[in-house]
Amino acid sequence: MIYLLFIIGFVLLIKGADWLVKGSSSLARRYRISELVIGLTIVSLGTSLPEMIINVFASATGNAPIAIGNVLGSNIANVLLILGLSAIFQPLPIKRSTVFSEIPFALAAAVLLGFLANAALFDVKQTLLISRADGGILMFFFILFMAYVFAMSREKEEPGLEGEEPLLAVRKSVLLISAGVVMLFFGGKWVVDGAVHLATLIGLSESFVGLTIVAIGTSLPELVTSIVAAMKKNADIAVGNVVGSNIFNILWVLGLSALIKPLPFNLISNLDILVTVLSSTLIIIAIVINRKSHIGRYSGVFFVMCYVAYLLYLVYRG
After folding, report:
1. The domain containing residue 118 runs over which residues?
2. Does pTM surpass 0.85?
3. What CATH code is carried by the domain that includes residue 151?
């Protein structure tokens, strides 16, 4: 049964992502709300559900390596793998607010996590961990981010382009979004359960499983959603989804996990935090190199190559 659900999970991910993007885009255009805002909130929260569920269970059962590895691995996959593949399918225009606000916020969240996790580094009497107080700090900054998004949502959306799909009825849009989120949740969970079951048979470590199989599995909703959005030329949803999910994962998912139960932190995970920071920095570098406010196909290929190199490093690290 677990293998059957593994296959069904992929089907739910693909169709759920399509419905989520379709409903969100229509709702954004109807109320003249920026699609970037929709991507940073509804879509990001919906596609972050697998990470949140996995982390809540991992934290409650004391599996800190999976909880921390899931978040860091997912954030790295979101940028290098998901944005990379999305840009290969369709170059992604990046709004000025994303470059100067959302991406720096995601970078700051990763740096904040590194600082909190290593606060006791020079105190030999304490072990490294993400405490409940640290979780509260992460949640506080998440509230600040949501306040920023709320302020941005009050700005009027720019006039739409010709040839856009017709607007859906509000009830149908809400139904598509709700159904899409539910399908993404169950699809992501079943795919991850199947992958973890296979990994257990091989005898892999929790940290490795969290950074690779669980991280990629819980990032599948973001992957499918962003590629579908990019192909439908809804770049704001594609980019907002990735950047928003990264912020949600660190501030909301990891913050909530630490509030449930303090998470012991392994010193070697600092390298994963560094890769998280560098991957987000690559977005800005790609924009500067292209001399246009977009991530081009060549940059997308480079992002994917960097992700493959990171996976090889994880295998080498064991």
Report:
1. 37-155+192-317
2. no
3. 1.20.1420.30
